């Protein structure tokens, strides 16, 4: 115990002083007062000016003020002497004792509780039955016994037992037993041997006590299971229910965009889809002025399906519809309706339509609706109980449930309209089916104009867009954006100040054929085979009237497996005759035939060519009805006439091979010239072919010649130019 003077001053001092003095426990108690006075003088001279309030009580109010003045004066003098204009340095923040106490007390209590549960009792000592009898029972020191939980006996001694050496009054003795019957029998026998009369025999009590540690161990599995369920519930709630947790898992995950901030895209920002814009404009006009239609008894279609290949601008067109109409726009993916919990999909559909009705007029856009709209009864294994089918059924009910006067329009996008359920496509639900195909050459030029605006180039954008549109047949809007971006990356990689035509051409090759594989080094023999293979393609196409005009031939490896490639300029053509298809097949077989003519064996390099020819032949025989023996029949299942179709396909391919073999045998010298030039330059163009072979023996006018002319201009779309749309699909 500390002296009274020390305890009084400790109560008056602050917490830092207490900890400092307690750390000096090695001092003699007689010198404790000296230690306090010395410590106070040290703190007075070394502490910063802003002293805690606890020191006022220790030193007195006057001394505290004097101490603060002296400290402030010393700091000012030091600043003057050092020339520091920033003023005295601020002391570090002093933690609040109340905050520390609030956090430390629960932590200490929890630590003590855990220790009490797992630590053995220090005042308990276990002994055997023999020790119990020899030390206590035979000497008559036992006052009573308690049987705890039927397996342990606690010994209570008489007060006079404390006088015996080795017996502590603070220790509880106990011993274990096998059974109560055996314990009682042994106790009776021992007391009978000691001639203890029945009236004076030791009383025995029976108790059941519960240990905290054993209780925790018993309920631990249950607590772990409850904790696991709570964790999974919160996780499922955060994944599906958002801020509302598990109770919000059935809420719709649709994102709402308003016209003031997010939906700023207009129809003028969408290029290459003029027909689709005209067809969807009716939704915009109705949402803007519904009275004009309703006064004549007209009803707006409830929904429209936007279908087309990937990257053609279905999502962008839906956003532009919302931007033009100036109404809220709810965007959701079809896969977000389906979850692992049963009934979540239909609940989200109901919540989506209920929210849309509150914000009417508005537009709902369901992207990739084929995730929930596939035809029922084909893929589900559980019939009507399948979650996807239940979601689809709820969607059908909701689209039937709201009237056209509620001014809610549902748009949906998919690139697989053939797999959708017929009930979803019928009039009254998705009334309009708007097809958005890949743009033609004029549409590509318009899209290039949009994506060329942020590109730094000195070329005239109108002329450059015309040229690039002619060089990219079959490209979608996403492909065009990729070409412009790749061109800028290539120019930046070569540290150019602007993007040139060569960069755009390299970008087109990169998108079509893949990245150049400079690390793939061909042996001289392999390089020679590739050169003659590509020369066979070039010569066959050069002397076939209906083959696509050649643009470039290369023997530089590209992509995953392409060792060489030939680039052509096909027209935007939708109908092909038998002669045109035959010339295309012969041009495709030119590489294999060239290997036959110049080498003793053939290689695996023509695998892709043979696959293309086989598909074309099966299309003519089994699909387009262009075979005399099979007749004008289009087989939906070619396996029904497998033998006949296979025989005619083989006959057609052999005919094309013989025709190509005859042509290239006559032009063998030309193949040699082109192959040697390829081995020298690795890449040859149309101009190189004309210098070697002269003009093609046919009167032709390519798309490039027709479209890319200095006087040729593109008629802009019937919408004024606006800001650059986001970098997604146009």
Automatic annotation (TrEMBL):
Q: Which residue intervals are annotated with compositional bias (Pro residues) in the record?
A: 715-730
Task: Answer whether the UniProt record assigns the keyword Ubl conjugation to this protein.
Answer: no
- GO BP of this protein: mitochondrial protein processing; protein catabolic process
According to the UniProt record, one GO cellular component term is: m-AAA complex
Q: Name one GO molecular function term.
A: ATP binding
Q: How does it sit in the membrane?
A: Multi-pass membrane protein
Location of this chain's protein in the cell: Mitochondrion membrane
Keywords (alphabetical) are: ATP-binding, Hydrolase, Membrane, Metal-binding, Metalloprotease, Mitochondrion, Nucleotide-binding, Protease, Transmembrane, Transmembrane helix, Zinc
Entry keyword annotation includes Mitochondrion? yes
Identify the PROSITE patterns for this entry: AAA (PS00674)
UniProt-listed InterPro entries? AAA+_ATPase (IPR003593), AAA_lid_3 (IPR041569), ATP-dep_Zn_Metalloprotease (IPR050928), ATPase_AAA_core (IPR003959), ATPase_AAA_CS (IPR003960), FtsH (IPR005936), P-loop_NTPase (IPR027417), Pept_M41_FtsH_extracell (IPR011546)
Q: Which intervals of the chain are annotated as region Disordered?
A: 40-101, 707-730
AAA+ ATPase domain: from which residue to which, for each copy? Answer: 300-440
Enumerate the cofactors the protein uses: Zn(2+)
**Primary localization class, coarse:** mitochondrion
Q: Where is the composition biased (Low complexity)?
A: 69-88
Please name the PANTHER family in this protein's record. Answer: AFG3 LIKE MATRIX AAA PEPTIDASE SUBUNIT 2, ISOFORM A, ATP-DEPENDENT PROTEASE
> Of which family is this protein a member?
In the N-terminal section; belongs to the AAA ATPase family.
Q: What is this protein called?
A: AAA+ ATPase domain-containing protein
């Amino acid at each position: 115990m500390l002296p009274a003077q020390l305890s009084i001053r400790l109560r008056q001092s602050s917490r830092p002083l207490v900890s400092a003095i307690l750390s000096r426990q090695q001092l003699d108690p007689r010198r404790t007062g000296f230690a306090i006075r010395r410590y106070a003088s040290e703190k007075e001279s070394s502490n910063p000016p802003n002293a805690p309030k606890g020191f006022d009580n220790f030193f007195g109010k006057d001394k505290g003020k004097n101490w603060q003045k002296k400290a402030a004066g010393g700091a000012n003098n030091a600043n003057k002497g050092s020339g520091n204009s920033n003023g005295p340095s601020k002391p570090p923040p002093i933690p609040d004792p109340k905050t520390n106490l609030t956090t430390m007390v629960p932590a200490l209590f929890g630590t003590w509780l855990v220790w009490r549960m797992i630590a053995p009792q220090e005042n308990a000592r276990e002994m055997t039955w023999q020790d119990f009898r020899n030390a206590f029972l035979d000497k008559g020191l036992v006052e009573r016994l308690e049987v705890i939980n039927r397996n342990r006996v606690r010994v209570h001694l008489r007060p006079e037992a404390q006088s015996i050496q080795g017996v502590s009054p603070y220790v509880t003795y106990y011993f274990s037993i096998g059974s109560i019957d055996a314990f009682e029998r042994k106790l009776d026998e021992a007391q009978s041997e000691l001639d203890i009369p029945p009236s004076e025999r030791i009383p025995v009590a029976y108790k059941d006590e519960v240990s905290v540690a054993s209780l925790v161990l018993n309920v631990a599995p249950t607590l772990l299971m409850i904790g696991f369920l709570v964790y999974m519930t919160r996780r499922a709630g955060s994944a599906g229910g958002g801020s509302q947790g598990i109770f919000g898992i059935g809420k719709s995950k649709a994102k709402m965009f308003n016209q003031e901030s997010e939906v700023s895209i207009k129809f003028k920002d969408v290029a290459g889809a003029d027909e689709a814009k005209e067809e969807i404009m009716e939704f915009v006009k109705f949402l803007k002025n519904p009275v004009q239609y309703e006064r004549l008894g007209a009803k707006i279609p409830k929904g429209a399906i936007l279908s087309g290949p990937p990257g053609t601008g279905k999502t962008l067109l839906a956003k532009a519809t919302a931007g033009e109409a100036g109404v809220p726009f709810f965007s959701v993916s079809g896969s977000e309706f389906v979850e692992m919990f049963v009934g979540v999909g239909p609940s989200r559909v109901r919540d989506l339509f209920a929210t849309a009705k509150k914000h009417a007029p508005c537009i709902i856009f369901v992207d990739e609706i084929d995730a929930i709209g596939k035809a029922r009864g084909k893929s589900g294994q559980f019939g009507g109980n399948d979650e996807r089918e239940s979601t689809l059924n709820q969607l059908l009910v909701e689209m039937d449930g709201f009237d056209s006067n509620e001014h809610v329009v549902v748009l949906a996008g998919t690139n697989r309209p053939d797999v959708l359920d017929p009930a979803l496509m019928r009039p009254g639900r998705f009334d309009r089916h708007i097809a958005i195909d890949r743009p033609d050459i004029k549409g590509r030029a318009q899209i290039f104009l949009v994506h060329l605006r942020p590109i730094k180039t000195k070329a005239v954008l109108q002329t450059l867009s015309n040229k690039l549109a002619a060089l990219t047949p079959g490209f979608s809007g996403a492909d065009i954006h990729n070409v412009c971006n790749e061109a800028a990356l290539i120019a930046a990689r070569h540290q150019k100040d602007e993007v040139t035509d060569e960069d755009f051409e390299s970008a087109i090759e990169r998108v079509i054929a893949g990245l150049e594989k400079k690390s793939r080094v061909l042996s001289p023999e392999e390089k020679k085979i590739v050169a003659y293979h590509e020369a066979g393609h070039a010569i066959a196409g050069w002397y076939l009237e209906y083959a696509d005009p050649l643009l470039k031939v290369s023997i530089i490896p590209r992509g995953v497996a392409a060792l060489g490639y030939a680039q052509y300029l096909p027209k935007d053509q939708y109908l092909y005759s038998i002669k045109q298809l035959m010339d295309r097949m012969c041009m495709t077989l030119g590489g294999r035939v060239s290997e036959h003519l110049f080498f003793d064996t053939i290689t695996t390099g023509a695998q892709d060519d043979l696959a293309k020819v086989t598909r074309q032949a099966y299309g003519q025989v089994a699909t387009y009805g262009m075979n005399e023996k099979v007749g004008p029949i289009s087989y939906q299942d070619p396996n029904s006439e497998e033998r006949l179709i296979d025989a005619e396909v083989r006959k057609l391919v052999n005919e094309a091979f013989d025709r190509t073999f005859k042509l290239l045998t006559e032009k063998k010298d030309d193949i040699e010239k082109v192959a040697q030039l390829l081995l020298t330059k690795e890449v040859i163009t149309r101009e190189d072919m004309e210098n070697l072979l002269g003009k093609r023996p046919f009167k032709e006018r390519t798309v490039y010649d027709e479209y890319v002319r200095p006087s040729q201009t593109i008629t802009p779309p019937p919408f004024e130019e606006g800001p650059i749309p986001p970098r997604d699909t146009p």
